[in-house]
Amino acid sequence: MCLKxxxxxxxxxxxxxxLLTTAALSSSLLxxxxxxxxxxxxxxxxxxxxxxxxGFSATMTNSAGSNNIHGSFGSDDGTYGDDVSGASTSPGAxxxxxxxxxxxxxxxxxxxxxxxxxxxxxxFDFAPRQNGNEVAHGYNTFVLSYVSGxxxxxxxxIDTQTGLSNVVLDGTDKAISAxxxxxxxxxxxxxxxxxxxxxxxxxxxxxxxxxxxxIGGNEGRNTSSILDNLAFQGAVIPExxxxxxxxxSGLGFLFLRRRS
Length: 260
Hints:
- The protein contains 2 helices and 18 strands.
- It is of the alpha+beta class and 260 residues long.
- The strands form 4 sheets. Strands 1, 2, 4, 8, 10, 13, 15, 16 and 18 form a 9-stranded mixed beta sheet that branches.
- Strand 11 and strand 12 form a beta hairpin.
- The relative contact order is 0.23.
């Protein structure tokens, strides 16, 4: 009886070790990377991402000519959204300002890495701005959508946020702050999150709900909002040969342990 229990215990340990080894190998193959990010805003127009993974490129377009990169504003919490570390804590952000009261940003990410990637998550910081005692405020509503490209389906709304709280700025106070973060798992909204080599994917953020000052001697003065620390994160899809090697490694380890 004791011998049987010993053998069962040994088999359980061997199987557990094999499974843990396979899981560790799998995790290393599916390690998520930041594919493209905007956090230092070194491009004066913000058109090109600050950093991209080798083989990737990413661009931003916006519908409002009055938007600008502002070197005195920015999020200083060091994260993309709330979940991903590594963002710059230095000043620099996109200041969204449009007298029409709405704006549209489009972000396009392109994969020319030679490998297929799972585009897993999207992260950014955003805050409507209110100046001191003024009653006007920046965009308090946004709609995040997947537009078109190698993912799918096209024209998919990912999230809508309304009634966002203002970040009240008085002079330079809170110009640098830990602005609210937004984090999205794209698989929750899209059925296809694989961006193959040679494909692009376009996302949009439509902003609205901005008001202009009507009292206090600042009539007609438009307000603004702050966008910072935007990043796409994803992982390379292992080649079939890599998956086969992973499986064989786990099975081989199990076989050798059982023989011993």
